[in-house]
Specification:
The complex is a heterodimer of chains A (105) and B (234). Chain A is 77% helix and 0% strand. By secondary structure, chain A is an all-alpha fold. Chain A has a domain of 58 residues. Chain B is an all-alpha fold. Chain B has 2 domains: 162 residues, no CATH class; 52 residues. Chain B contains 12 helices and no strands. The chains are: A mainly alpha (105), B mainly alpha (234). Chains A and B meet through helix 1, helix 2, helix 3, helix 4 and helix 5 of A and helix 1, helix 2, helix 3, helix 4 and helix 5 of B.
Chain lengths: 105, 234
């Protein structure tokens, strides 16, 4: 078997199992309140763990983070999300702001 | 909830629109990169179908290009994508009534954006199975299709940033994060998760950043006393 197929099959196993194992085996289990609270806070924690580096870092560096285009494109998106709670409106605003900032700077 | 099947399908499709706006250019960029690396179109498509993990696929393709060994590449895919174990665990309390195939469909085709949407919907009491699985399936199909399309046509949209499309997914994260920020515990979880993740990226271990940030941020939030949380839990 060629190396790329080994990578594809191996890659499938190591991504599929972590995705389905908790859903298959934890669903319906009784869990202590503390664990339930922890699980309910994973969404905000992981979303900002994905978002913050995008806004602040350039190639893994915090240097000059205040010059990041994404950081400023995020401000109008943030406002629209806050005021309208519209997912599509926020994404459209973000896209337009990023394009505009790129055009201007 | 007594909605007809097609109403649910339509809801799932509508939810998928902003995700696809962000995914399509990334899928096309993946296809193009894969071609430039000398990988065949079937391998490119198979990777999208079997691995289905955006950042992991980019990592895998560039490691293949650099001639790294299969074990090292598979380990990297595992690390970068391991955050899904947290997402899967976090959705599990809502899925007790679901059939096994429905859980496999929800977990097996899980991505960051679908997780964030499911999480919001489930927490608000909206556990529309058909809509959730429609969302997953649509993203899955379009991700694979744009990868294959980008393989041939990627050069046409080589610079999605000109149109601001590179910011579609960060903007989506903003929209999905804000609704949580009405609770102090969630605000603390988000701030800690983000800070830990940035620190890990700066330290050069960005592959683990989302997993450890998610784990640590949620743990920090647990310690915030919030009387109304227990009432809302059920």
């Amino acid at each position: 078997m060629s190396k790329i197929w080994i990578v594809i099959i191996g890659g499938m196993l190591v991504t599929f199992l972590p995705r389905i194992a908790p859903i298959l085996f934890l669903s319906g289990r009784k869990m202590p309140g503390l664990v339930r609270r922890w699980l309910s806070l994973i969404a905000p924690a992981i979303l900002s763990a994905l978002l913050f580096p995008e806004l602040l870092l350039d190639g893994g560096s915090l240097d000059m983070f205040y010059t990041r285009r994404y950081l400023y494109a995020a401000l109008p998106a943030f406002l629209v999300a806050w005021k309208t709670k519209s997912l599509f409106g926020t994404v459209a605003t973000g896209i337009a702001s990023a394009a505009l900032l790129r055009l201007l700077f | 909830m007594n909605k007809s099947y097609w109403t649910s399908v339509e809801r799932g499709l509508r939810w998928s629109i902003p995700v696809l706006l962000g995914f399509a250019p990334i899928g096309a960029a993946y296809g193009l990169l894969s071609r430039q690396t000398g990988i065949g179109v079937w391998h490119t498509l198979s990777m999208s179908l079997f691995v289905f993990a955006g950042s992991s696929q980019f990592v895998a393709v560039s490691m293949l290009q650099n001639g790294m060994g299969a074990a090292a590449i598979i380990s990297s895919i595992f690390i970068v994508n391991f955050r899904h174990v947290l997402m899967s665990a976090s959705l599990s309390p809502y899925l007790a009534p679901w059939k096994t195939w429905q859980r496999v469909a929800l977990g097996g085709m899980l991505c960051d954006e679908a997780f964030a949407l499911h999480s919001l919907h489930f927490a608000s009491g909206d556990t529309d199975i058909t809509a959730a699985i429609t969302l997953n399936t649509t993203i899955y199909v379009v991700w694979a299709a744009t990868g294959a399309t980008g393989y041939y046509l990627g050069a046409l949209i080589e610079r999605p940033e000109v149109f601001g499309l590179d910011f579609a997914l960060p903007a989506m994260f903003i929209a999905l994060l804000l609704p949580y920020c009405v609770k102090r515990s969630a605000v603390l979880a988000a701030l800690c998760g983000g800070a830990v993740s940035v620190a890990l990226h700066v330290a050069g271990v960005g592959g683990w950043a989302a997993f450890i940030g998610g784990l640590a941020g949620a743990a920090a939030g647990v310690f915030v006393k919030e009387p109304e949380t227990e009432a809302e839990a059920k």
